[in-house]
Inverse folding.
């Protein structure tokens, strides 16, 4: 449903946000290229702009999103301070406001009245429109962040957000400009243009990542996996995975998927700066993938009247057999996991070894992986 299809009157404009987005975009589209053509940007301007852009991205993805909104890991105070500084520089509101809105989004995803940036209301609304007017769905309600309110660092940022964002957005580029003797060039490229790029790349996750891509894990919501967006957004483009496993510190769960935020968090764990990294058990990931494969294979079977009746029945029988195996594996895994947890409890008390049960769990997970391959072949044969 597009925003225009809704009949309620438009709420009043948020003049602060509207002017900020309009002015920074206008400067980026006019003054920045003019200055580049007439005066030129130095290599230092470009290096600092790219560096600040990357750090702003991490401030949002590793800080606001995965650390505070979803509590997917714990971090040393120095890391939290670092992420908070560059999250503030990204100018996307305080951590309180950002995380509260994001938790509301996950709880009410795609609900046109409760999701602050519901993609069902159209690209413009989910990308930026929701911030330009005072929509009821976007009203701040910090009742869902009691844990964050107890963090003095976040509370300080929220209380003094305006001076901190001005200091970060003008102070840091100005300081870099003084160091490299090009104040105006640095302010334009590493200040304004960097801010506009950071804004819209992040906003793509609210808009495009709910409209463009695949849904390998769930079709219960509009979130998509998109490797192109993952490159632009430091790994956030694997959004279908994220919406079903939101408490996993990874978004790109496969080793080959582009997720520098995951690598940043994991890398810091080796030197003790991050800890308690939450990971979804591989079995649960395989189960979600297989459930979607069964759903789509069944739909293809029902829409395949051109296949000869005997062969169609044979394919249905094979799919049914695979599904029974899938249900058996799910039941076995739950049983073995329960035994493993019981043994682990006893092992703490008596230091028993429970490697055998861990091996059984791994065998079941490998079996599900093989079943996915067989199901892909069946899916292709039905086509």
């Amino acid at each position: 449903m597009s925003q225009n299809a809704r009949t309620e009157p438009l709420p009043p404009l948020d003049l602060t946000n509207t002017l900020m987005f309009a002015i920074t975009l206008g400067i980026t589209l006019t003054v920045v290229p003019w200055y580049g053509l007439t005066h030129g940007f130095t290599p230092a301007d470009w290096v600092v702009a790219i560096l600040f852009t990357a750090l702003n991205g991490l401030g949002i993805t590793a800080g606001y999103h995965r650390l505070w909104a979803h509590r997917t890991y714990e971090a040393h105070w120095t890391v939290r301070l670092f992420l908070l500084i560059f999250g503030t520089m990204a100018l996307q509101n305080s951590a309180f406001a950002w995380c509260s809105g994001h938790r509301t989004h996950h709880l009410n995803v795609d609900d046109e009245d409760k999701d602050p940036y519901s993609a069902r209301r159209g690209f413009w609304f989910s990308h930026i429109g929701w911030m330009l007017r005072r929509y009821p769905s976007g009203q701040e309600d910090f009742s869902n962040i009691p844990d964050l309110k107890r963090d003095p660092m976040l509370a300080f940022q929220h209380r003094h957000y305006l001076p901190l964002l001005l200091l970060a957005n003008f102070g840091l580029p100005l300081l870099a400009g003084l160091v490299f003797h090009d104040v105006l060039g640095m302010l334009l490229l590493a200040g304004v243009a960097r801010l506009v790029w950071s804004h819209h790349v992040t906003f793509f996750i609210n808009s495009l990542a709910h409209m463009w891509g695949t849904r390998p894990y769930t079709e219960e919501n509009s979130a998509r996996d998109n490797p192109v967006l993952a490159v632009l957004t430091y790994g956030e483009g694997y959004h279908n995975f994220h919406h079903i496993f939101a408490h996993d510190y990874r978004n790109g769960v496969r080793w080959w998927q582009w997720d520098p935020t995951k690598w940043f968090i994991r890398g810091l764990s080796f030197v003790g700066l991050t800890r308690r990294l939450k990971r979804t058990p591989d079995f649960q990931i395989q189960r979600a993938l297989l459930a979607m494969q069964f759903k789509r294979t069944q739909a293809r079977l029902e829409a395949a009247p051109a296949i000869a009746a005997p062969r169609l029945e044979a394919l249905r029988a094979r799919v049914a057999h695979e599904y029974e195996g899938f249900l058996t594996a799910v039941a076995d895994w739950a049983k073995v996991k329960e035994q493993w947890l019981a043994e682990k409890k006893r092992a703490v008390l008596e230091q028993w070894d429970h490697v055998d049960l861990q091996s059984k769990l791994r065998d079941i997970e490998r079996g599900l992986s093989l079943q996915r391959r067989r199901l892909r072949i069946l899916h292709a044969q039905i086509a």
